[in-house]
Write a structure and sequence with these properties.
Blueprint: E1 11-17, H1 22-33, E2 37-44, H2 50-57, E3 62-64, H3 73-85, E4 91-94, E5 111-115, H4 130-139, E6 143-150, E7 160-167, H5 174-197, E8 201-204, E9 207-210
Parallel strand pairs: 1-2, 1-4, 2-3, 4-5
Antiparallel strand pairs: 5-6, 6-7, 8-9
Helix pairs in contact: 1-5, 4-5
């Protein structure tokens, strides 16, 4: 993995989304606090995504790349990469992005996804949004959580960077469980970005290694 993050420099982030952009808003707030990063562009696979409006209100380039306007995944990714090239991001964050993102080597080890479960449980194709929480409740597990991982060619198969858990309560609904998991996601993603921005993350043989400090 090429080294990412240098002390004293902000990490340039591109955000890919498909929906309302609540995670994007949280990221804006974390950056305004003290997260050493800047969002350089927001791309959406849907024209109607409210996340685009959130970006526009903050003066961030917001670009719709509607998946339905492209005949296949390859041409859709051509358009995504063409847009990304204009902004030269260090890191791409998939925040509720419901279409495949092809790394094309350029973003190998430079793209993060947030998954609303503890990978490898309740992960893979078809496991997104409330489908995940419904499956968790149907299975009757007592713990679930959230995972921040690097993107790979397979759904939810990339190296895991951070995970944490929440309890599954007897009276949970998909909505109540989702609310707690999303709160966890909003904590884990900025933590992951901070680790990367300060040069503490390495990928070795398909696994991540987090240095205790930048000198390790």
């Amino acid at each position: 993995m090429a080294e990412l993050g240098t002390a004293g420099e902000k990490l340039r982030i591109a955000v890919l989304l498909s929906g309302s952009g609540t995670s994007l808003e949280n990221l804006f707030e974390e950056i305004e606090a003290d997260l050493p990063a800047e969002i350089v562009c927001v791309l959406s696979s849907k024209k109607s995504a409210f996340g685009l409006e959130r970006a526009e209100k903050r003066g961030i380039p917001a670009i719709a790349v509607p998946r339905r306007e492209y005949p296949d995944v390859a041409s859709f990714n051509d358009a995504l990469h063409e847009a990304l090239t204009r902004f030269e991001p260090d890191l791409v964050c998939l925040l509720g992005f419901l279409s495949p993102f092809d790394l094309r080597e350029r973003y190998e080890g430079r793209a993060l996804n947030v998954h609303p479960a503890l990978i490898p449980a309740f992960s893979g194709q078809g496991f997104y949004g409330h489908h995940v929480h419904e499956a968790v409740l149907a299975k009757g597990v007592k713990l679930t959580g959230a995972t921040v991982h690097f993107v790979s060619a397979g759904y939810d198969e990339g190296p895991i960077l951070l995970q944490d858990t929440v309890a599954v309560l007897d009276d949970d609904t998909p909505d109540s469980l989702a609310a707690r998991v999303q709160a966890l996601e909003r904590r884990l993603l900025p933590e992951a970005i901070r680790l990367i921005a300060t040069g503490r993350v390495r990928i070795e043989e398909g696994r991540t290694r987090i240095a205790l400090d930048m000198g390790e």
